[in-house]
Amino acid sequence: QVQLQQWGAGLLKPSETLSLTCVVYGASFSGYYWSWIRQPPGKGLEWIGEINHSGATNYNPSLKSRVTISVDTSKNQFSLKLSSVTAADTAVYYCANSRGYDRIGSYWRYSFDYWGQGTLVTVSS
Amino acid sequence: QSALTQPASVSGSPGQSITISCTGTSRDVGNYNYVSWYQQHPGKAPKLLIYEVTNRPSGVSNRFSGSKSGNTASLTISGLQAEDEADYYCSSFTTNWVFGAGTKLTVL
Description:
The structure holds 2 protein chains of 2 kinds.
Chain A: E1 3-8, E2 11-12, E3 18-25, E4 32-39, E5 46-51, E6 57-59, E7 67-72, E8 77-82, E9 91-102, E10 107-110, E11 119-123
Parallel strand pairs in A: 2-11
Antiparallel strand pairs in A: 1-3, 3-8, 4-5, 4-9, 5-6, 7-8, 9-10, 9-11
Chain B: E1 9-12, E2 18-23, E3 36-40, E4 47-50, E5 64-69, E6 72-77, E7 86-93, E8 97-99, E9 103-107
Parallel strand pairs in B: 1-9
Antiparallel strand pairs in B: 2-6, 3-4, 3-7, 5-6, 7-8, 7-9
């Protein structure tokens, strides 16, 4: 059973750096790409970026200048840092896998199969 | 890569079938089969319903099915049940991931 558990600060002031971490249980860490996704209150989902076990990253161009995603394979963890936050960054942040290697079919499967529980991050002065 | 276009809302009565569309372009939905669909109940994380246009993960009801024609992918829910009332999102991958704005399904 694959489980993702995430944590991080829930209240930030403008200009601070958002920091979240997600730990993965029950999955081969190297067999997936790992993503961060956010959802502003009452709005839709926005993909932030992804990373693989080797540290290769892929970011949403609209957020790229402020985003850093890193990985610690020894702990099966990956992390998100978003700098210079404003009120517009207030959202529920989710960690999820974004690709997974299907060993039966021997191909990469493109989907968000497993999700963390979400963390509400509020930016307010 | 622009967001995918979904209707803001759809509705149906119990037992009926509904279809939610997801329109992209020839550069994403029309050219790749990396379309997936997610169900989200209030206060919950999204749940994968369909991946790669038509495939259902293990454990997802066969009342949910996916298809694609040209630049538009579709999610069909048959035999509507009260528990299907939720928000539904499509997603596509090219060099980046993009989501649709979401569709609110109301079961009358």
